[in-house]
């Protein structure tokens, strides 16, 4: 039976809005905060409850679909066959805890590895970014224009200061040179929000050296639908089954960064 993508889109949007209401309501309640891999890697009861909410809805409505999510429960995927929902219930958990803003729900729905629907919901601003394969991208009801090129010297780039100080992923000098040459840098602390900002042109590029598929699965669909480019920082294609570096940018800018700035960067493979 042919998949009804309009139906999937409609359910996904309704669930994202419903989850957003619960997250907003949680601002009035006490949060339970736990640490994961290190003391800055945080998870709250709301991350877990929101992920459970989506898992329950998907399993009930689309039992044949598979799920990859940031928190505890998800299918251990070793391939991208079929329909897969890649879910980050709260991207920017640290912002959610400390600022109650600059976080988002991020959901990418893929079929056999091809991005079909990308949703990023900036809950606090009530901005739902949506990319549908072949149909463009929207913020709420407004269609977003295609992304034009921009030169490095006129670009605003989203990048965390971590990557221009001593770290275990990249020689700080590589991005240091780029940071000196661009018009400005910004860091919002949520990969999903920063990719949504690439889509709207608020920033021209976003770079991270350590992202998981649930951080970028939705953003990739939205940005690519607008003519933007997403690869690893080496220029190699992204792989939804692994963590990696990410460079998301307007097309010309992506090329200039790859050709002139990251030529000495080799990503470590585990
Ligand atoms: P999170 O808030 O859902 O954990 C912050 O710079 C951005 O990087 C956020 O999108 C954050 O997602 C993500 N991030 C932080 N640490 C990460 C890690 N160890 N692996 C993958 N993504 C990470
Ligand atoms: Ca995340």
From TrEMBL:
- Hydrolase found in the keyword field: yes
GO molecular function (one): inositol monophosphate 1-phosphatase activity
**Binding sites annotated in the UniProt record for Mg(2+) 2:** 90
Catalytic reaction annotation: a myo-inositol phosphate + H2O = myo-inositol + phosphate
Assigned EC number: 3.1.3.25
Q: Sorted alphabetically, which Pfam families does this protein's record hold?
A: Inositol_P
Residues annotated for Mg(2+) 1 binding in this entry: 70, 88, 91, 215
Recite the UniProt keywords alphabetically. Answer: Hydrolase, Magnesium, Metal-binding
Cofactor(s) for this UniProt protein: Mg(2+)
Q: Which Gene3D superfamilies does its entry note?
A: 3.40.190.80, Fructose-1,6-Bisphosphatase, subunit A, domain 1
Task: Please list every transmembrane segment annotated in the UniProt record, as residue ranges.
Answer: none
Q: Which GO terms describe its biological process?
A: inositol metabolic process; phosphatidylinositol phosphate biosynthetic process; signal transduction
* Name of the protein: inositol-phosphate phosphatase
């Amino acid at each position: 039976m042919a998949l009804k993508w309009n139906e999937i889109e409609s359910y996904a949007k309704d669930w994202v809005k419903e989850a957003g209401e619960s997250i907003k309501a949680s601002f009035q309640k006490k949060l339970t905060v736990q640490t994961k891999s290190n003391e800055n890697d945080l998870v709250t009861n709301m991350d877990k409850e929101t992920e459970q909410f989506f898992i329950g809805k998907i399993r009930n409505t689309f039992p044949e679909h598979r799920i990859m999510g940031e928190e505890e429960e998800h299918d251990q995927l070793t391939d991208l066959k079929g329909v897969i929902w890649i879910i980050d219930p709260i991207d920017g958990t640290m912002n959610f805890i400390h600022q109650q803003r600059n976080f988002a729900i991020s959901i990418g729905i893929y079929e056999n590895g091809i991005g079909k629907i990308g949703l990023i919901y900036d809950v606090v601003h009530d901005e739902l970014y949506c990319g549908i394969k072949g149909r463009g991208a929207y913020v709420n009801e407004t269609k977003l224009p295609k992304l034009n090129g921009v030169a490095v010297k006129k670009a605003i780039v989203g990048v965390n200061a971590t990557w221009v100080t001593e770290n275990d992923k990249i020689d700080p000098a590589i991005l240091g040179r780029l940071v000196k040459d661009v018009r400005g840098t910004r860091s919002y602390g949520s990969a999903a929000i920063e990719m949504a900002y690439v889509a709207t042109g608020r920033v021209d590029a976003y770079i991270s050296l350590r992202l998981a598929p649930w951080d970028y699965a939705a953003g990739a669909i939205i940005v690519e639908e607008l003519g933007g480019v997403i690869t690893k920082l080496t220029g190699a294609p992204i792989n939804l089954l692994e963590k990696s570096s990410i460079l998301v940018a307007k097309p010309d800018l992506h090329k200039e960064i790859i050709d002139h700035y990251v030529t000495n960067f080799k990503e470590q493979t585990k």
